[in-house]
Design goal:
This protein is of the alpha/beta class and about 325 residues long. About 50% of the residues lie in helices and about 10% in strands. α8 links the parallel β6 and β7. This is Phosphoglycolate phosphatase.
Length: about 325
């Protein structure tokens, strides 16, 4: 079910944890900084818990976590950290799966795209350029470009003003409380990714929708609507998918791989027809493996499908 009654004019994205998996490079930079002060290194999970509030908070909390503050102003520590991190900020950092394909789809649909991040502006531009993402975005607003960071809504409003769109014409995609709170305060609809750096259950962020895969986003934004003649049948489609899901579970537990393949193929066709390309793609991947994969591997491939089908049922009246 679409998030809005009509496709938005603009989509805003957080960066770290939302568009990109930048944690490996952040962990490496934090631990190089700590080593210079003879501090013990932090684990990836410990650094992940500090990401989202901006680089100054990351640096300050890294020292507090490992023994307390040092005899140097946070501003000086931040300068040293960024001087080391920025040129190495894309060594291991990568876009999340299907990000580039999804951004391409949104641009082809004529949507304006923006980055709205608490990451320092210089590092943001370096990362976007090195990962081949810069050309997708009409506006990039980082930590140095507004008087306040997310969750302050001014971060969102600056972008809306720059793009010339209203809050009702935009959607914010993020992974943390700061992203969702800033957008909600600005009156912008929200989508949370389930695979980012949230400091708690994603379901508790208060987002209007949650996605497990970027391939879900175009349909959620109303770009992959079913043909007009099928639009009124969406509730019936959701009910049929619920029944098909039960049958799929039974077939996965059995030994008839031919019947499993036929059922998955039929489900895939229905999803493609009703504007659910993300589900169709996942079912296609499962179908390719039905005759050769182990039962455990088939269960692994099917689990995201069941999760997505459950969400489809909950979002359909």
């Amino acid at each position: 079910m679409s998030l809005l009654t009509s496709p938005p004019r603009a989509v805003l994205f957080d960066l770290d944890g939302t568009l990109i998996d930048s944690l490996p490079d952040l962990v490496a930079a934090v631990n190089r900084m700590l080593a210079a002060w003879d501090r013990a290194p932090l684990s990836a999970n410990a650094v992940k818990a500090l990401v989202g509030g901006g680089a100054a908070i990351l640096v300050e909390q890294a020292f507090l976590t490992t023994g307390g503050p040092v005899d140097l102003p946070v501003e000086d520590l931040l300068h040293r950290f960024m001087a080391d991190y920025e040129p190495r900020s894309a060594e291991s950092t990568r876009p999340w799966p299907a990000v580039i394909e999804t951004l391409t789809r949104l641009k082809e649909a004529g949507l304006a795209l923006a980055v709205c991040t608490n990451k320092p502006s210089g590092a943001t531009k370096v990362v976007l350029a090195k990962l081949g993402l810069a050309d997708f975005f009409d506006v990039v607003v980082g930590a140095n470009d507004t008087p306040a960071l997310k969750p302050d809504p001014i971060h969102i409003q600056v972008i809306l003003d720059s793009l010339g769109v209203t809050a009702e014409q935009a959607v914010m995609v993020g992974d943390s409380y700061n992203d969702i709170a800033a957008a909600r305060a600005a009156g912008v609809a929200t989508v949370a990714v389930s695979f980012g750096y949230a400091h708690g259950p994603v379901a508790e962020l208060g987002a209007n929708r949650i996605i497990d895969d970027y391939r879900e986003l175009p349909a959620l934004l109303g770009l992959d609507r079913p043909p007009p003649g099928l639009a009124d049948l969406q509730p019936a489609f959701a009910r049929e998918m619920a029944r098909d899901s039960d049958i799929l579970r039974d077939l996965l537990a059995g030994d008839d791989r031919a019947a499993l393949s036929d059922h998955v193929h039929a489900m895939r066709g229905k999803c493609a027809m009703f504007g659910q390309p993300d589900l169709a793609d996942r079912l296609g991947g499962l179908e390719e493996e039905t005759l050769r994969a182990s039962p455990a591997e088939l269960e692994r491939l099917a689990q995201p499908i069941f999760t997505r089908l459950e969400r489809l049922a909950s979002e359909t009246p």
